[in-house]
Structure formats: C-alpha cells, structure tokens
Design brief:
This protein is an alpha/beta fold. The chain is built from 10 helices and 7 strands. Helix 1 runs parallel beside helix 2, helix 4 packs across helix 5 and helix 5 crosses helix 6. The radius of gyration is 18 Å and the shape is globular. The chain binds adenosine monophosphate, zinc ion and fe (iii) ion (FE) (2 copies).
Amino acid sequence: MSRIDLHLHTTHSDGSFSPAEVLRLAHKAEVTALAITDHDIVSGIPEAITAGAELGIEIIPGVEISSRIGNTELHILGYCLRWQDPELNQRLAALRESRHSRNPQIIEQLRSLGLDVTYEEVRALAGTDSVGRPHIARLLMDKRYATSAKDAFDRYLAEGRPAYVARELPMPADAIAWIRAAGGVAVLAHPTWAKVTGEGLNRLLTTLKAEGLGGIEVHYSTHTKRQTTEYLDLAKRLNLLVTGGSDFHGITKPDIEVGTGRGDLKVSKRLLDPLKEAALFASPS
Ligand code: AMP
Ligand code: ZN
Ligand code: FE
Ligand code: FE
C-alpha cells in the first residue's frame, strides 16, 4: 500500500534523524514520495534527493516557516519551491537569526531557575544553524532535568511556562509571499494551532487564501476523524489543496512515525499531482 508523507523534520532543524535515515524509515513504511520540511532551512534537501534516488522515493522540496498573527502561532509549509533561490535563503537566514536572538534568553531563564545549561551546549548538540526549543529539550533530557521532550516543554519551554520566550515571527502573509516568490505553494500546517473552528476558521482561511495560501494540511498525525472531516470540508468549500504529513521529528515526538504517524495516518499519493500542478502554475520560470 503506497503512501506519501509531506511533513518531516531532520537533523537540519529539530529532528533527530538525518535526511538519509528519514529516507530509510520512509522506504520501510512504503512511502513513495515525501517532503522534507525543516524549520527555516533547506540544507537537508540535497542529501534527501540523493537517498531518494537510490531508494526510488520522490523528494518534494519543502520548508516550514513559523508565523504569528495576534496571539496565534501559525506554521506555513512551502512546497515545490526553488529551494536554492537566493532571496528565499536570505529570508530563512534572517529567521534563523531570530532563533539565535531568542534561544540565549531561554537559556538565561533556565539558568536563573538553577539549571546548569549553556547555549554553546545547545548549539553543539543541534549541529545545525536552525536551532529550536526541541534541541533545548534534548539537552534538558541529556542532563536529567527532564524525562522526555514533553516533560521539558510542560515544565519549562511551552508558552506560559517559566523559560518561555516569544520569538519575533513574521506575519503569515509574509511567509506565504516568500514561499510564492520562490515558486512554491503555501499550505497551513496543523490547522488545530489556529485555535478556531467552524466560522472562525472559515474566516481565517478566507483571509489567508486572499494572501496567497494554496492549501491546508488536512491529514496529520494527531487529527481526530472529526478534525480531518472539518478541514476536508473547508478545503473543498474554499477551493484549497489538501495535503498531509506525519510531522515526524524522531525522539522529541517519540509516538510519531514516518508515513504512518500514530499508526493510522494514510496520505494518498493522489494529493501529489494537484500540488505540483499548482506550483507550476505559480511559477512559470
Ligand atoms: P521553536 O520553533 O524553537 O519555537 O520550537 C517549536 C517546535 O517545538 C515546534 O515546531 C514543535 O516541533 C516542537 N514542540 C512544541 N511543543 C512541543 C512539545 N510539547 N513536545 C515536543 N515538541 C514540541
Ligand atoms: Zn519541529
Ligand atoms: Fe509545525
Ligand atoms: Fe513540523
């Protein structure tokens, strides 16, 4: 039974498996096409393409950009983009810079709570320029300050917890525009983060669509049947593309596997052609 997975993280951001390792897991799960969607970085794509060619897995270039509107953090996935585009890469570098401004403040908070941690340790553990809170969570696990990533977030790192520091984030409209300028299709990731349903979500998606949003991540590891149905209906109603993926991270989300999520995820390969066609349409060059 072939399936696809359009939402995966690697060691190039806060995932714990390299692109080649993710591809091996995808192969085992009978995934025939996948998108690497690291946070604010595209450097994992070449390794994925090489491994994909060996295993017969099609690689869709992708990225995930965090944005904020009001008090709501929304993640925008970009697909089929010209990932080497210099302007896009400048934008992504600036987003990574905002991580390096925020992260030491998180470390300061943790230190003031008595935890012996430094940002140098986090950077060494991360081994990439796109450093996120899951890396800090992993350091806290390594040092036995937390028993799991969830524990680290619940105790220290999540919004409202003592070491939470907000990061400067672009508006969704900006993230969408950057993706489209690189010929990509912009998709709203894990729409539950919008914290609205029904008419509220309809309004939000209508606004985002006017700003250039092309699709919505209907199929996702943690979605209930009811959520999947609601998002599918909204996609149809608003003429948005349907996508889906696991949001695999490895050890910081230990219950989620490549291709199958929590076991019941199945993203159809039929979703792929419309996505690629939309990108072609967006990008004549
Ligand atoms: P950052 O981009 O550095 O602000 O970190 C946010 C990322 O942390 C999200 O994209 C998720 O991948 C991850 N994350 C958020 N909450 C949790 C949690 N409770 N457990 C594990 N990972 C989380
Ligand atoms: Zn992540
Ligand atoms: Fe996300
Ligand atoms: Fe993600």
